[in-house]
Amino acid sequence: MTSYIRNPLTLVWALLTIVTVVSWLTARGGGSAHIVNVTVTLVVLLIAAVKTQLVIWHFMEVRFAPRWLKLTTGGWLVGLVALLLGFYFAGL
Amino acid sequence: MTNVADPDIRDTGRIAHPRNHLPGESSMWFFVIGDLLIFGVYFIGYVYYRGLDPDLFLQSQARLNLDIGAINTVILLTSSLFVALGTSAARNGKVPEAIRLFGLAFAFGVAFPVMKAFEYIPEVTAGLTPGTNLFFMYYYVMTGLHLCHVTLGLVILGFVIRSLRITVKPRMSFVESAATYWHMVDLLWILLFALLYLMR
After folding, report:
1. Helix, strand, or coil (residue A68)
2. Running along chain B, 200 residues long, what does each successive block of 10 average in pLDDT?
């Protein structure tokens, strides 16, 4: 049991859970749900990007993987977030 | 060759993880990357159409159950943790421990569609269907496709548990491929949760 608690994977999970709660509270406390809120959007999308990278890097073990996989997954995430933010701001 | 003195290759278990190791079969990675690209197109389409009618999307989004969305995120994260710990245990030859951990991952995984049913049923009975508007079309298509992935993932986790039960020395490429798929299901939900429930 102690070995699980001290396991780096459990620490990654704890961090992922904490930032999920932060996102949840940010969305809940971000004023009216019917109004565009750039700050809330930036916070929740950047937290989602960090969470995604943590899952890819630690849970999917891409940190040990060949360079091509690190570049492919990293390129996908950076490209996706850039396009999401680009279309979001274009639509404001 | 492994070098345990290198901090970059310390594994979570006792066996050092080799550098340049592709976790699982390469075919699984091609499938995962293809899936990430397909979902990426859906995500970008969703944000594009959201920008054309932000009021409709925000009003529709406000009718979703944010709490169930967040609970389901934690459920999948926890399931993913057990899969990662189970993979590490299998790699270290601790088969009974790996079976227990994959069993816990499966149990948390099953909780996801159960919670999703508690979310879908009141929405559908309130008249919110894919035909309601573009937001709900995206909502049902993306979460529905994701739910298909969860279901397939649960079947794969079941096969992992079965294979661990009948063997003394687990076939790690299969365990790692299954784990890779399950973590992909987790990360897609992380993005879906942010896009459908959280962003404003």
Report:
1. helix
2. 40 62 94 97 98 95 95 98 97 95 98 98 96 97 98 98 91 96 98 96
Can you give chain B as a three-state secondary structure string?
A: CCCCCCHHHCCCCCCCCCCCCCCCCHHHHHHHHHHHHHHHHHHHHHHHHHHHCHHHHHHHHCCCCHHHHHHHHHHHHHHHHHHHHHHHHHHCCCHHHHHHHHHHHHHHHHHHHHHHHHHHHHHHHCCCCCCCCHHHHHHHHHHHHHHHHHHHHHHHHHHHHHHHHCCCCCCHHHHHHHHHHHHHHHHHHHHHHHHHHHCC
CA distance A80 to chain B (A): 7
Sign of the alpha-carbon dihedral angle for A83, A52, B198, B113: positive
CA distance to partner chain B, nearest, from residue A25 (Å): 10
ipTM for the complex?
Answer: 0.95
Q: Which domains does chain B have, with CATH numbers?
A: 67-200 (1.20.120.80)
- 3 state SS of A61: coil
Chain B: give the shortest CA distance to residue A52, in Å: 5
Would you kindly state where each structural domain of chain A is located, as residue ranges? 2-90
Asked if B138 is an interface residue toward chain A (Cβ–Cβ < 8 A), one would say: no
Residue A1's SS3 state is coil
Best interface-test mutation with B: which of A61, A63, A72, A76 has the largest number of B CBs within 10 A? A61
Per-position DSSP letters for A21-59, written without gaps between them: HHHHHHHHTSS-TTS--HHHHHHHHHHHHHHHHHIIIII
Token pair listed for A79: 């490209």
